[in-house]
Amino acid sequence: MPRPRPTASQAQADTQTWLERAVIGLNLCPFAKAVHVKGQVRYVVSADSEPGKLLDVLIFELKYLASVDPASTDTTLLIATHCLNDFLDFNDFLDHADLALDELGLEGTLQIASFHPDYQFAGTTVDDITNYTNRSPYPTLHLIREDSIARAVQAFPNPEAIFDTNMHNLKELGLDGWKALDVGPHP
């Protein structure tokens, strides 16, 4: 069933709610709270329906993030509201995103993390709660500074444990707990 097409302001609000309630609220990313509280997260909503145009937006945003002072913008969430709704298409697009990062000479400076309403880790079933660590209201590319990750990892006592902790916490939360967060997508 096709998802409704939100306005840019609604997509940004939905994504910010997801960030606050799920990513920060469940501590899925212990590094997210600081940049959110400081207002250093840039939200960019793309209503493009063609992956090639979304790629153009991604390239612009990668260049922008690489050039702007981290004190004003430390990270970017690029939200695609009208394309890549199929997870397999989204997953294929990530190869183009990584190639763009490499061609811009920004590999090692920036990285791209991926989130999708239908995100599914290899070896899991569609309804496996652990997939929700990477489920967002809309297809989303998180553009992250490598320097910021390095600083955050130094401040975090055991960064290797984040993934396992997230899996454990989501299993404890369960699908009903996720639904109660009201952040979409809903199982």
Structure write-up:
This protein is of the alpha+beta class. The protein has one domain (8-181). It has six helices and four strands. The chain has a four-stranded mixed sheet with strand order 1-2-4-3, with helices on both faces.
DSSP helical segment count: 6
Characterize the overall form: globular
**Major beta sheet, specifics?**
4 strands, mixed
**Structural class designation:** alpha+beta
Features:
187 residues, alpha+beta, 13% strand
Question: Summary?
Answer:
The protein is α+β, with helices and mostly antiparallel strands and 187 residues long. The chain has helices spanning 8-24, 32-37, 51-67, 87-103, 146-155, 161-181, and strands at 41-46, 75-80, 110-115, 140-145.
Set down the secondary structure blueprint:
Elements: H1 8-24, H2 32-37, E1 41-46, H3 51-67, E2 75-80, H4 87-103, E3 110-115, E4 140-145, H5 146-155, H6 161-181
Parallel strand pairs: 1-2
Antiparallel strand pairs: 2-4, 3-4
Helix pairs in contact: 3-4
